[in-house]
Design brief:
Number of domains of chain B: 2
Number of helices of chain A: 10
Mean pLDDT of chain A: 84
Shape of chain A: elongated
Structural class of chain B: alpha/beta
Radius of gyration of chain A: 19 Å
Mean pLDDT of chain B: 91
Low-confidence stretches of chain B: none
Order of helices and strands of chain B: EEEHEEHEHHHEHEHEEHEHEEHEH
Largest sheet of chain B: 6 strands, mixed
CATH architecture of the largest domain in chain B: 3-Layer(aba) Sandwich
Order of helices and strands of chain A: HHHHHHHHHH
Oligomer: heterodimer
Number of helices of chain B: 11
Strand order of the largest sheet of chain B: 6-7-8-3-9-10
Strand content of chain B: 25-35%
Helix content of chain A: over 70%
Helix content of chain B: 25-40%
Radius of gyration of chain B: 24 Å
Strand content of chain A: under 5%
Chain lengths: ~240, ~300
């Protein structure tokens, strides 16, 4: 575990100096956590009176964006962490070091997973607070919102695992990021359904979604660890 | 000690390494030579447990690459063809990270990093990003990283490629110094035959995944040319001298051209005194006697024909 944390810290120090990645980590929380709530803050008072249905749709849609955030941040970070090392030709010395495949994989997962989950939760707290203040009463988090928050770590992990699969096979960061970006499309679908009040965040769909994503995470994790073998990585340098 | 037994590596249909066997003793600088794609880097990667062999095994100080990869990774240092440095980080951050991976205790890590940066004249730049460094400095830092945990076996893949002559000489001198009086094994892959000749006690030449020659340059030369040649400059060569040489049955062949007598023998150290004695007795005025040595380049080009 000590070495996994060393990998995580090293990667995070690198990411902080890489605007391409760190920019995404900052911009997404600012948009979802601050810009959108501020928009709501200003339009809510008029919508409350004029069009409560539209207000409900907008709040639902913006709430769903946190799932997009939970999956987008790890895709970018993991693409840099895995494929980026290959692209920058730094991976070989790391693979020659006395660290097990599992520790190395865990370190790389943590650096993608932790910022995504922490930033998503912080943005969600800001979002809920601003919406409640604008409404003048306590709306969020409601049960659907809580449910989405429960899905955040599961989606983050899913994003990382898919990015690992892709990163092992491609040579560079951009290629990995673009291919892994496709995973956002089904999440976007869920968000849009939610916006139009066809919510998958109510029983029984919420439980089906939770269980199926959880099972996918577990299955993909063991596959990703296998695929993350040193030989698979070095063969694509 | 490194003991490699029948090591094979396939990548699909390609046989990158095809049943190589050799031994490297402690304290040796061992050169691994061969053309691009011959299997040098693949061999280093197998020996440093980055990739697994398709078959065969290798033992490094008693540990084998199939069952003890972690022990082997801990005891070897590797300088890869690319410096493999995190360019956005400082030298201290780079070395501290690898210090953690190689289990250097926190209490001595900082001191060890300072020592090794001092050794490579990088102390003044230790808090600057690596991306601002010249190629030579990056190579020195990569070498420093490979030595950080004081490895017993050091694998160096093209250690001076892309370096200017002065820096390359500095790196070569440092490698030589490292091996002096110690029992470290230094295993060098290089295309630079002058460098290999200067540094290595023994070399192995690999071609198409097979070892086509192994030994000291002198041994290889003897094996290839089935003996040695001595060149004797003589002022007054005549038929009397020629006749006296024909009496020496250990001489395989000789010819005289442009005042130089070239004689092929099995072993110059044994045969030269008798040749010189015979020539002097037959009245030859000898100007010089020189053993013709084949350079490592001659040896390499003879072994690697394509």
């Amino acid at each position: 575990m000590r070495k996994a944390i060393a990998v995580m810290k090293k990667d995070f120090n690198e990411i902080k100096k890489n605007f391409q990645v760190f920019g995404v980590m900052i911009i997404l929380p600012v948009i979802f956590g601050v810009v959108y709530p501020l928009i709501l803050y200003f339009i809510i008072p008029s919508l409350v009176l004029e069009d409560p249905a539209a207000l409900n749709m907008i709040i639902n849609m913006f709430s769903g964006f946190f799932l997009l955030m939970a999956i987008s941040i790890p895709v970018v970070v993991a693409a840099d962490s895995f494929a980026g090392e290959k692209e920058r030709k730094t991976i070989e010395a790391l693979l020659a070091a006395p660290i097990s495949d599992a520790e190395l994989f865990l370190g790389k997962v943590l650096v993608s997973f932790l910022p995504a989950v922490i930033l998503t939760y912080i943005s969600a707290i800001i979002y809920c607070s601003l919406v409640n203040i604008a409404l003048g009463y306590f709306l969020l988090p409601n049960s659907a919102f809580w449910f989405q928050m429960a899905l955040v770590p599961l989606f983050a992990l899913l994003g990382i695992e898919i990015t690992v699969f892709i990163s092992v096979r491609v040579k560079g960061f951009r290629e990995a990021q673009q291919l892994a970006g496709v995973i956002i499309i089904p999440v976007l679908g869920i968000v849009m359904l939610n916006a139009f009040n066809i919510s998958v965040f109510v029983a029984p769909w919420n439980y089906i979604l939770l269980i199926s994503i959880g099972i996918s995470d577990i299955a993909l994790y063991s596959l990703a660890v296998k695929k993350f073998g040193r030989e698979n990585i070095i063969s694509k340098i | 000690m490194i003991r490699v037994k029948n090591l094979v590596k396939h990548f699909g249909d390609l046989k990158a390494v095809d049943g190589i066997t050799f031994t490297v003793e402690n304290g040796e600088i061992f050169g691994f030579l061969g053309p691009n794609g011959a299997g040098k880097t693949t061999t280093i990667r197998m020996l440093s447990c980055i990739i697994r062999p398709t078959s065969g095994n290798a033992y490094l100080n008693g540990y084998n690459i199939l069952d003890n990869p972690m022990e082997i990774r801990s005891m070897v240092g590797i300088l890869t063809e690319n410096p493999c440095l995190y360019e956005r980080l400082t030298p201290v951050a780079n070395l501290d990270f690898f210090g953690k991976l190689y289990d250097i205790p926190k209490t001595i890590r900082a001191t060890r990093i300072d020592e090794i940066l001092e050794m490579f004249d990088l102390q003044d730049r230790k808090f600057e990003k690596v991306e601002t460094f010249s190629k030579g400095m990056k190579q020195k830092l990569a070498l420093a990283r490979s030595l950080l945990h004081d490895p017993q076996i050091l694998f160096l893949d093209e250690p001076t490629s892309a370096l200017d002559p002065k820096t390359a000489k500095g790196v070569r001198d440092y490698i030589k110094k490292l091996s002096e009086g110690g029992d470290k094994i230094i295993f060098i892959c290089t295309h630079n035959l002058t460098e290999a000749e200067y540094l290595c006690d023994r070399v192995a030449v690999i071609d198409h995944g097979k070892i086509v020659g192994i030994g000291s340059p002198e041994e290889l030369s003897r094996d290839i040319w089935k003996g040695e040649q001595v060149e004797i400059a003589i002022k007054n060569y005549d038929s009397h001298i020629e006749q006296s040489l024909k009496q020496l049955n250990f001489i395989k062949n000789f010819e005289y051209q442009d005042h130089i007598l070239r004689i092929d023998v099995n072993d110059t150290s044994k045969d030269n005194p008798r040749i010189v004695e015979t020539l002097v007795k037959s009245g030859a005025q000898i100007v010089s006697v020189e053993i013709k040595r084949h350079s490592l380049e001659d040896i390499y080009l003879n072994l690697v024909r394509d």
